[in-house]
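[09:14] KT: can someone run the structure on this one? pasting the chain below
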Amino acid sequence: MTTDIRLTQMWEGCLKNDRKQQELLYKTLAPRMLAVCMRYAHDKDEAQDILQEGFIKMFKNAHNYRGEGNLEGWIRRIMVHCAISRYRKLKPMVLVEDFTETENALSSGGYNAHGLEAKDLLKMIQKLPQMYRSVFNMYAIEGYSHQEIGSKLGITELLSRTNLHRARTILKDMVNQLTTREMHYMAG
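[09:31] RB: done, structure tokens below
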């Protein structure tokens, strides 16, 4: 049985408040949705909180899914919206932070000469300031426009572009630092 058919069967059970089907849907999609939440969260605990909020919201609003488009994509958008809502609640924050801790954390990591693994890049993204991280994820990964990002985060389109540029600059610096450390390690 294909994944889409299984998801459809689980979804039909969820619409009937079948707890077994809800649990099955959760267990099937939680790992993929946690990966989405991890991109917005500072750490795994925060990502798990977003994941739980997202699934609760999804089950409460299950009747709103009209069967148009991909079910998994609809649930993914709920997770992203939960992450954005969490950000809005925590909004009074500084946009720039001291990266000394970030540099120290990276210097102790064990990276190989084959390049970055996805988990390494995820860790770097998680070290970005919250605003930069949100804008980067929404633009580079979720495909939002700067106008959409601005309206969802309550910022101007220009500030969205600026934050994306700064996030990319910080990420490039982090990658360059790792590359430099690898070269020193291999030479030394």
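[09:33] KT: thanks! DSSP finds nine helices and no strands in the chain.
[09:34] RB: yep, looked fine to me
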